[in-house]
Automatic annotation (TrEMBL), chains A, B:
Organism: Rhodanobacter lycopersici
Name of this chain's protein: MarR family winged helix-turn-helix transcriptional regulator
Domain (HTH marR-type): residue spans on this chain: 15-148
PROSITE patterns recorded: HTH_MARR_2
Pfam families, sorted: MarR_2
Length: 153, 153
DNA sequence: TAATCATGGTTTCATATGTAACCATTTGCA
DNA sequence: TGCAAATGGTTACATATGAAACCATGATTA
């Protein structure tokens, strides 16, 4: 047996272990995207996700934002605090339920959104262009299948 | 145009955005694996990765571990501190270069490794079983292609 | 061989994140 | 009604993480 190997113990080959590969690829691409706007706009990943959701669905509550971003409510609460303070998100209280907030992007929020969204799309394109068209299609199909089907509620 | 939508702004559809999907899928599966050993063995993800690498490559230095785990050296240093303190990793100084450490699993380390590795593999299997065999093959091929080709050094 | 630079590794500090406890309001139901 | 349980959201605390400064050792070169 080769020196330094331990076949009796069947060690994991990290670089062929799918969960590990997913983690590396995911972190690499997310980081690349974040680098684009982090410094430029002082915007964290969580904040950007909240903005992206509010761009599509105006008037959501914090809880609904949490659902759609797959973030927990604490993370959303913190992101919102920063976004509101920065004047990027408007928040007022729901008319008939004073616990709920009603959220939406401000003009400043839209401005940032309209700068960041194309950059994000561009990064996605760059990632996909490393794959053959056939592979791109399979990847999309596979990810759709593996995404948690939002089993709650 | 439908109420609450803003087509002029071309908002990102997060749930079809590949980097976002990758992040969700990756976190979900990693968390599931971590849950298996976190509580049972008081072992963090970073620590487990270090152990997995040392199981395959005995005698690495901390820097080499960092390379193979795609973690930065601070994270590795901290993980090693805990692992050595817990008696799971043995560390001594390189004979001819006193900066380097020479690392390896202890018997206790191997014991944990041999419990955790099969669980991790099982989780990977469960993930893959949600895909058709054809899709599994494509996913492996695609991830191999997307993995950063270790461009440093 | 002394001065400088590079390398392996740890410590420090500031920030991010998760869990649990917590308020305020609303709902369910006796 | 009136009180317990549930819900939306925030706060507090403890832990994790990353960047930069740091220390010790080794390599390089004048």
């Amino acid at each position: 047996m080769p020196a330094g190997r331990h076949p009796d113990h069947a060690p994991l080959e990290l670089e062929r272990f799918v969960p590990y590969q997913l983690s590396i690829v995911s972190n690499t691409v997310s980081q690349a995207i974040a680098d684009d706007y982090q410094a430029r706009h002082d915007l964290g990943v969580t904040e950007w996700r909240v903005m992206a959701v509010l761009a599509r669905f105006d008037g959501l509550s914090a809880r609904e934002v949490a659902e759609r971003t797959a973030m927990d409510k604490v993370a959303v609460s913190r992101a919102l605090a920063r976004l509101v303070a920065a004047g990027r998100v408007r928040r007022h209280t729901h008319a008939s339920d004073k616990r709920r907030s009603v959220l939406g992007l401000t003009a400043a929020g839209w401005k940032i959104h309209d700068e960041v969204a194309p950059m994000a799309r561009q990064r996605e394109r760059e990632l996909m262009e490393r794959l053959a068209p056939e592979e791109q299609a399979w990847l999309r199909r596979i990810l759709d299948k593996l995404m948690p089907q939002d089993g709650h509620e």
